[in-house]
Amino acid sequence: MPAKSKDTRPGGRSARVRAAVHRATVDLVQEVGADKVTLPAVARRAGVNPSSVYRRWGTTSALLADVAAQRKDEAAPELLGDLRADLGHAAVWTLTDLSRPGGVAFFRAEVAPDVDDRRAGLRECLERVSTRFQAALEAAARRGEETPSLDRVLDRVVAPLYFRVVFSLPETDEEYARGLVAELCDGLPASGQLPDSPRTTPE
Amino acid sequence: MPAKSKDTRPGGRSARVRAAVHRATVDLVQEVGADKVTLPAVARRAGVNPSSVYRRWGTTSALLADVAAQRKDEAAPELLGDLRADLGHAAVWTLTDLSRPGGVAFFRAEVAPDVDDRRAGLRECLERVSTRFQAALEAAARRGEETPSLDRVLDRVVAPLYFRVVFSLPETDEEYARGLVAELCDGLPASGQLPDSPRTTPE
DNA sequence: GATTTAAAGCAATGAACTTTGCTTTTGGCA
DNA sequence: TGCCAAAAGCAAAGTTCATTGCTTTAAATC
Question: Which of residues 62-101 of B touch A (CB under 8 A)?
Answer without folding.
Answer: none
